[in-house]
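chain below, 254 aa
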Amino acid sequence: MALPMVGIQPIIFGDRKFEDPLGCLDEVRDAGFRGVESVNYFLRFEPEQVKQWFCDRGLVVPATHNGYADIADPAKLAKALDFVQAFGGRYVICSGTADRTAAGYDASCEVFNAAGRAARERGLQFLYHNHAWEFDLLPDGSRGIDRLIGGTDPALVGLNIDVYWVHVGGEDPAAFVTRYAARAEYFHFKDGGKDAEGKPWFCELGGGTVPLASALRACLDAGATWITYEQDRTQLTTWASLSMSRGCLRTLGL
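prediction:
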């Protein structure tokens, strides 16, 4: 079984990823990550310059991460597709929905099917990235996650399963991955938990409550192409967090 590639979603850098992109990419490379689920740097910098940044460091861009508004707007979606395609990447990812009502989820399904169709026409794959709130019960007793999965075409819309948010949402990540293995090959690994008030907290991989080892086994069985580290915030330096989390992934066999 071929091992998946190991990447990073650079949210941990905050605005520094725009203010000091080269320094951030140096840390990513030096920590041992192979790919970056990148923001669309073409919107702020010259494309050829950006491509050289990644080329010089031996980094690839398998995916780009976008908010709902950028996916719902065909012109903005096209720019996201352009960015991924320019790097030979494959995935265009969306976080968020029109809103968190039943009607909002259902409307989002239509948008996601359209985005998936646009991606497929270019040989790319559209993915939806879950958080925990999609697992909350709606007034009618349904859950957003089930409406999104059931209301989208499996041939057009895949899942970027975030194992931390599945865990915080109340499900076992390994079981969830196994259930939807046919729609998932690109995964987010994040760690942390919930505090006494039920608020999420984040930490380096291996330091939280997420059962990462069993989640990884399920991801491998699902044919994972990428395991992507994501940490929303850190109390340490970014270099320390990246190094510790990459070390955890090595311990797990990646």
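The CA atoms of residues 98 and 104 lie 5 Å apart. Residues 5-251 form a domain with the TIM Barrel fold (CATH 3.20.20.150).
thats it, cya
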